[in-house]
Amino acid sequence: MRAHKAAQRWRMSWLIALNLGLTACAALAPANHDSGVEAGRRLAHDWQKGNCLACHQIPADAQAQTSANIGPPLQDLRSRFPDRAKITAQIWDARGTNPDTVMPPFGSARILTRDEIDRIVDYLYAH
Ligand code: HEC
Fold first, then answer.
1. Given pLDDT bands bounded at 50, 70 and 90, which one contains residue 35?
2. DSSP characters for 65-122?
């Protein structure tokens, strides 16, 4: 009985150590920028998510096939929106800059999470 308890305790502490180790690895791993850009592209192009191509061209991305022109082409955003908070706010809820906008309020309407919008900004900044 005693031996069984000890084994159980040992197993438990091993699991905790493993867990801490994995958490540390995740925290120390370098941020993979490319995967952020790729995830952002998928979210921006996905018609059930960002669906940005319904209204915007993204001229620097050859994979962004669309003839949409309801919104301005999304280009040179890193230089035109150097403040990441401003472009994030535009995607979160464009009514902040234009109360009559037709752009969906992706954050306020919970179409996209903050994390998903961050990935889309990574993608836009790369194009
Ligand atoms: C239904 C159409 C529509 C959709 C869908 C849409 N937008 Fe827009 N967007 C607009 C319009 C129109 C504007 C022009 C400014 C305004 O009216 O708010 C705009 C402006 C912008 C701007 C500012 C561009 C500039 O040059 O000033 C950004 C950035 C932007 N949109 C990003 C996005 C992203 C990212 C998505 C997808 C997650 C998206 N938009 C989806 C219509 C849309």
1. confident
2. -----SS----SHHHH--SHHHHHHHHH-GGGT-TT--S--TTTTTSS-HHHHHHHHH
Ligand 1 contact via 39 beta carbon (within 6 Å): no
pTM of the prediction? 0.80
Given pLDDT bands bounded at 50, 70 and 90, which one contains residue 30?
Answer: very low
Q: Answer yes or no: is the C-beta of 6 below 6 A from any ligand 1 atom.
A: no
Delimit the domains of the chain by residue range. 1-30, 32-125
pLDDT score at 21: 57
CA–CA separation, 97 and 94 (whole Å): 6
Class of CATH domain 32-125? mainly alpha
